[in-house]
Design a protein that fits this description.
It contains eight helices and eleven strands. By secondary structure, it is α+β, with helices and mostly antiparallel strands. The chain is globular and about 55 Å long. This is Lipopolysaccharide kinase (Kdo/WaaP) family protein.
């Protein structure tokens, strides 16, 4: 059984032909970007723009192979959720999967390239001067804080909210986009709080190296909606700071 959904805005012209169905998508070439045992990512030029094509030939690791939603399905559903919640992300162009004998066989996700953007991890590695501009950092941090809060208010945690999965464009006051979220899921109770702490710790992993203490605290204040911090916030902040102890 094959299921494929193509965004109606891309269903005509060159994109409509290139992305018509799952077979067409798996026949695409393009520039190889990444590869792992589960998936490949290629950058393809179709019509007048670039797209990223992620193709999976395994449902995922461990129990994902047999139970629950395949990793590729989680990825496209999470990106669609981002858009529904008002969190800027890459446009989802097409998605779908094929099952054989009831088991996952293959799947794909296509997103339109966010041109003129770079991820925060690369910006940090390159020693980009923008990280020394307090106004730039504040503008970016506030957007990330708002997006993170919106996710967590839905009971959703990203699970890999690292700087490499956050894009910014080149405007003086840039827009921020969240990408690559195959591991995100909904949680509740103590498990949600644990995942919230993990998300915040992932952000702070590079944050503690590149940002000042006051910039990091300001981020957290924006994250909680600028209300006065209380004992539960202090407990959470301490847990965030300890999260990666012994794991690095």
């Amino acid at each position: 059984m094959k299921r494929w959904t193509l965004n109606p805005e891309y269903a005509t012209g060159d994109s409509g032909l290139a992305f018509a169905d799952l077979d067409s998508v798996f026949a695409l070439g393009g520039e190889a970007i990444t590869q792992d045992p589960l998936s490949t990512v290629h950058r393809v030029w179709v019509g007048d723009r670039h797209y990223y094509v992620k193709r999976y030939t395994s449902a995922g690791k461990n129990l994902r192979r047999y139970l629950g939603r395949p990793r590729i399905k989680a990825e496209w559903e999470n990106l669609l959720n981002f858009h529904a919640w008002g969190i800027p992300s890459a446009v989802v162009v097409g998605f779908g999967l094929e099952r054989r004998d009831g088991r996952f066989h293959r799947g794909a996700l296509i997103t339109q390239e966010l041109s003129g953007t770079d991820d925060l991890a690369r910006i940090a590695r390159s020693g980009d001067a923008r990280l020394s501009d307090g106004r730039w950092v504040a503008h970016v941090s506030r957007q990330i804080a708002d997006a993170t809060r919106m996710m967590h208010e839905q009971g959703f945690a990203h699970n890999d909210l690292k700087w490499r999965n956050i894009l910014v464009d080149t405007k003086v006051y840039p827009d921020v986009y969240l990408i690559d979220c195959p591991g995100g899921s909904f949680w509740w109770g103590p498990m949600l709080e644990y995942r919230i702490i993990k998300d915040l710790a992932c952000l702070d992993k590079l944050g503690k190296q590149k940002l000042s203490r006051s910039q990091r605290l300001r981020f957290y204040r924006w994250y909680v909606g600028e209300r006065p911090l209380d004992s539960s916030d202090r407990k959470r902040i301490a847990a965030v700071l300890r999260f990666f102890e012994g794991r690095e």
